[in-house]
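fyi for ur records
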Amino acid sequence: MSSPQITEAPRGRRVGRALAVVLALLTVFGPISMDLYLPALPALTADLGAATSTAQLTVTACLLGLALGQVVAGPLSDRLGRRRPLLVGVAAYIVTAILCALSPGVETLIAARFLQGLAGAVGIVIAQAAGRDLYAGKRLVRYYGRLTVIGGLAAIIGPVLGGQLAAVADWRGLFLFLSAAGAAILVAVLVVFRETLPRPERTAGEFRQTGRDFRRLLSDRVFLGAVLVVGFVYAALFAYLSGATYVLQGIYGLSPQGYSYAFGLNSLGFMAFGFAAGRLSGRWSERGTLAIGLTMSLAGAAGVLVTALAQLPLPAMVVSLFVLVGGVASATPPATSLALAGYPDIAGTASSLLGLAQFALGGPAAPLVGLGGAGTAVPLGLVAVAATGLAAVVHAVTIRRRTRVPSRETARDEQRDRVTASP
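which gave:
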């Protein structure tokens, strides 16, 4: 299949399949880096003679890098274009993955993992920003729906692929595999990815301009509300990811295989609801779809808490977790579109704040789930209810009660989207 010759594409132009695949790969770039080596974490701990808590800092360091890297890469891509920062980020990822594989001690590995997170963040933020460069209106929210689906797929593939690779390679081999995957993505970017942000549309100025851009974004109540909504629902999702294994295996006695089935079911639900939300938002209403997603996530969180307090049987917990995860997936595409739709000129900077919110609010939620010990699911329910409840409150006071008037450029994007959208 020949690669499409996409140059400085106008918004609303139909995007070739090869470019769509590359953007999808960039989306899973960071999450796969975080998940792939988890099955080998116990072996890594023993091999480096590290304490378990110290070895787990390699996960924390990657999360921190993924959060901070987006804040750096987003504004840079608004100023320099998408392609150059992307090439540098992917190349840096290859090098840092090799550094992880060669780390002589856990301290070196923690530092290398932080750098790997910084590099991996570039792909995430540019995939979102490039989508805003290329799409508008209904096609934009469908695009973010596809990104949500791909994120759910990465959650399934990462640990499974890591487990299979761990059968034939040690933990160092897993990082070498990530380096090879980065090299393949670098080749794909070189061949397929052409600049999506025309030079006249790039931001000018130095760091002071970046500060003004951040102030401009944070002064918009709808943008700030959408960012906080995404952050809070991801806090509930991170709580689920960190606590579900203890709840389903430790409390309800599922075998590892049974847990994998339950986890796979929820991941498939995440993908299905993310896809449906993208389609529904485009055909009906972004705000209405967001409200449905938040209602679902809050209902699922409440179900988890009630199930834990009343010690209800396993089906009640599985259904509650499914509704919670499905609600997060339903809320994410319309919230992302609401945040970015009005800022085509600084889409990279806006995307970076979205990514920061996901990890800055989601990351601290994970350890809170374990405060009550492994014998109760009440902390998971409390964290999930608090996170989704805060998301609902933010939605009510920022997005639901305030309608932003589209800018002229946004209106032109919508008109072009109606003209160019495929049937």
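The longest helix spans residues 221-251. thats all i got for now
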